[in-house]
Amino acid sequence: xxxxxxxxxxxxxxxxxxxxxxxxxxxxxxxxxxxxxxxxxxxxxxxxxxxxxxxxxxxxxxxxxxxxxxxxxxxxxxxxxxxxxxxxxxxxxxxxxxxxxxxxxxxxxxxxxxxxxxxxxxxxxxxxxxxxxxxxxxxxxxxxxxxxxxxxxxxxxxxxxxxxxxxxxxxxxxxxxxxxxxxxxxxxxxxxxxxxxxxxxxxxxxxxxxxxxxxxxxxxxxxxxxxxxxxxxxxxxxxxxxxxxxxxxxxxxxxxxxxxxxxxxxxxxxxxxxxxxxxxxxxxxxxxxxxxxxxxxxxxxxxxxxxxxxxxxxxxxxxxxxxxxxxxxxxxxxxxxxxxxxxxxxxxxxxxxxxxxxxxxxxxxxxxxxxxxxxxxxxxxxxxxxxxxxxxxxxxxxxxxxxxxxxxxxxxxxxxxxxxxxxxxxxxxxxxxxxxxxxxxxxxxxxxxxxxxxxxxxxxxxxxxxx
Amino acid sequence: xxxxxxxxxxxxxxxxxxxxxxxxxxxxxxxxxxxxxxxxxxxxxxxxxxxxxxxxxxxxxxxxxxxxxxxxxxxxxxxxxxxxxxxxxxxxxxxxxxx
Lengths: 467, 99
Description:
- The complex is a heterodimer.
- By secondary structure, chain A is mostly helical.
- Helices cover 76% and strands 0% of the residues of chain A.
- In chain B, α1 (3-32) packs antiparallel against α2 (36-59) and α1 packs parallel to α3.
- Chains A and B meet through α8, α9, α10, α11 and α12 of A and α1 and α3 of B.
């Protein structure tokens, strides 16, 4: 095993651990809606939500980095350039995450001054980490980019299509993160640029990263030929970026930006489900080609699930609320949270779990990874997520209906909507299914840490039945 | 937009994309497994998607431009599964030829 792959295992372990931390704070955050005075002035909702969302971002980032450190030496058949630096940065990254988490837990916030900005909390959603930590993350990303680019240049083998896509994607990946630093006093201007970071990471550069990772996983667990995954990757990247970049406009609807963003954002967002339709087709076709036979059953199921849930979470849920006339009532409600949960889970979480199983197979040394134990984690996580997003959708639609459309968005209407039975029942459902999701996480970790049984090899059959 | 129109419109839009997805999946599986019933179910799903787009165009309070975009999207859904499947089949037949 390459040193880079050992580093990848550390990253994936850290990612899986933070996934658990994220769930704990997600459950805690969901309870505040039912018991609003819970932990009042000890640990308020705002910090619980910050912990939930920031751990989400960090664990997905670590998972993606782990996946790339896993596949990069396989792809180029050489050790990663500057691996010692990458190993050092991993520990610095982990230490920074722990320090920031402790500050969020015990200090929480400070006065409106430069000290708070640098050492306590930047106060910008999703990038609350204090400035020193943001600089640290930038350094981690720069070292990561150096590892990938320098290894690609130094490798004797020709650059592959997947690597070209990855290398080009690293430039905007690092560049848009620099948006984490400004602290403009004009809220509209600040949010305008802040969305460049949030949207361009989540709906553009990360989409490309996960596309590259999924291409490698497909070759790994299904034996799909490189030509096919690369051709599909180019199409996917072209379509996702084509609709996704200007889809940024759907975040500009109500923050004080010019009116033309309503048309741009609405139009390009409406196009976003189209490439997802193609991805579902590809998943179905590959499943048919291989007759559900693979050397790594859990990874295979998770990547197939990724295509479907990405389509439903990002495509269906996104399209429901993306036009300005609808979004005017839905934005900032639990409806948005429903879409966010479903889209993140479909687009990223399923893919990273697939990589965890790829790594498990390699570490276990079994030729075939299957059995039934992994299905508990798979079933409970999916059931928990679907239940949660349905609960959030119900609550969010109640907010949009009673608080916004009927009540006129007043504080009184907001309060009344928050007490509406449709809203509260949705929130109860979210908590209940949140616990189901947490049980799924426990089963997932249990399965990942338990030695698999050796199973006979089932060769994939890449022979489609005649149409 | 009235509260009722808000919920009606958004549910119709969600169902439209869902029906589009059903059309893609059923058509693909039907063609691969050579099962005419599944292909017909896929075509019926597309019919539902198109009907939903027309309902949105007629009953929703959306502006004309957005209605046009939704109908155009629904029409685009007609082409995506057959074109995608043809492309996938061609890629995989090239693969077999190379191996």
